[in-house]
Amino acid sequence: MIPVANVYRMMAYAWSALSAGPYASLSAEEFENHADLMAAILCRGVADQARRGFSKAYVLQRRQGQLPRGRLLTGPTVALAARGSRDVVCEPSELTADILENRAVKAALASLLGADVPSARRRELRNALALMPQVTSVGPRQALKGLTRRRTSRTYQALLAVSSMALSGEVLSSQSGDARARSFLDDSTMAALYERFLLRYFQREHPELEASAPHIPWDVDAPDPQLPLMRTDLVLRTREGAPRTLIVDAKYYGSNLSSRFGKSAVHSGNLYQLLAYVNNEAAREPEAEVSGLLLYAKTDAREQPALDRVIGGHRIRASALDLSGDFAVTRGQLDAMARVLA
Fold first, then answer.
1. Is the Cβ–Cβ distance between 37 and 70 less than 8 Å?
2. Cβ(159)–Cβ(49) below 8 Å
3. Euclidean distance between the first and the last CA atom of the chain, given in angstroms as a whole number
4. Cβ(231)–Cβ(165) under 8 Å?
5. Calpha distance 19→27 (Å, rounded)
6. Are 232 and 249 in contact (CB under 8 A)?
7. DSSP alpha helices (H): ranges in the chain?
8. pLDDT in tens, 235-258
9. Cβ distance 34 to 185 under 8 Å?
10. With contact defined as beta carbons under 8 Å apart, do 172 and 142 qualify?
11. Residue 297 near residue 334 (C-beta atoms within 8 A)
12. What class has domain 189-341?
């Protein structure tokens, strides 16, 4: 189980806005659980956006009346005329805060109201909801379905990201049929956060390296649309000196090793996938030293991945990143990865 404080640090790297602005003082707070953490972030974010003004967009609104305004809808207007009405039906576009993104934030606040959060936080949630009377209330499924995350400010992006995480947990709990069993941060949500955290950590802490998450092209004689995309989680490249490339495949599982006949081994599918990434990247970048790393999030199991071999001329490793204790330990492991490329 990852401590809530470390989850916050992962979020702060994943969405750098959480390290500054209205969220800056959150780093000194202690949170009871993940729901409490997300509630604190959303309450701060909504209060800040209320001062700045909520994001708005032009939305088509159907209107019926005698004065035409906006785009005339011929079919409904003719139908009214057939019944003797002089009204016309139009679709004017209006600038409004009642948009999908704000509905998602409001739905997330409402979902956290029903979670196990302290009474003081519950009051903050109610106050935050009171700041959004112009926004329509929708259920978590509808809010998630319409969440598009348009190009917005960094603080708004963080707000939408945390709202999405809260809503995903709410949908998951409703499927289980036990509202008291909400985790809000299930494995799939944590896996996505883990991947984003790793990328943003190296981009921020190790500018001497080029950190990205590109698609690796297949080394084929001709493109084929049926070939699956090779989407990486993290690729680190040296900017100076000898060209070195490390392809990192991030894995967040309940079990990091497979077991058969009493023998533990790295998941074969993970290893085959990483080898495909490394081999195709090496073919594209023949002058570089290309290696691969399966980086699992450490679990409570006694045995953890510890593979380090040269396969097909490339160094291939599998190890576990400790996210369960002092974050300085996590930082030390990640910094050691950077030193391998130095």
1. no
2. yes
3. 32
4. no
5. 8
6. yes
7. 4-14, 34-52, 74-82, 100-113, 119-130, 140-145, 154-176, 187-205, 268-284, 327-341
8. 999 999 899 999 999 999 888 899
9. yes
10. no
11. no
12. alpha beta
The boundaries of every CATH 3.40.1350 domain in the chain are: 189-341
pTM of the entire predicted model: 0.84
Query: In whole angstroms, what is the distance from residue 331 CA to residue 320 CA?
Result: 13
Q: What is the DSSP letter of 30?
A: -
DSSP 84: T
CA distance 278 to 293: 10
Q: Which of 50, 146, 129, 135 is nearest to 97 (CA)?
A: 135
Q: Residue 59 is which amino acid?
A: V
161-216 pLDDT, tens digit per residue, is: 999 999 887 765 555 444 444 567 888 889 999 999 999 999 999 999 999 999 99
Cα–Cα distance measured from residue 236 to residue 246, given in angstroms and rounded to the nearest whole number:
5
**Tokens representing 201?**
């950590």
The pair of three-digit structure tokens given for residue 32, joined into one six-digit string: 């009871």
Tell me whether residue 199 is exposed, middle or buried, using C-beta atoms within 10 angstroms of its C-beta: 0 to 12, 13 to 18, 19 or more. buried
Instruction: Give the H or E element holding residue 230.
Output: strand 230-231
Euclidean distance between CA atoms 336 and 342, whole angstroms: 10
CA distance linking residue 248 with residue 226, whole number of Å: 25
Name the maximum alpha-carbon separation found in the chain.
83
- Residue 186 burial (CB count, 10 A): 15
Give the Cα separation of 340 and 342 in Å (integer): 6
**Contact in structure between 9 and 18 (CB atoms under 8 Å):** no
Residue that is written with structure tokens 């991945």 in the block: 305
Share in percent of the chain as helix, strand, coil (round to 5): 45, 20, 35
Structure tokens at 307: 């593979």
Span 95-146, pLDDT tens digits: 889 988 999 999 999 999 988 899 999 999 999 999 999 999 999 888 888 6
Helices (H) and strands (E) in the chain, counts: 10, 15
Give the phi and the psi of residue 137 in degrees, each rounded to 5: -85, 130
Q: Cα dihedral angle (94, 98, 100, 103), rounded to 10 degrees?
A: 180
| The pLDDT of residue 293 is above 70 | yes
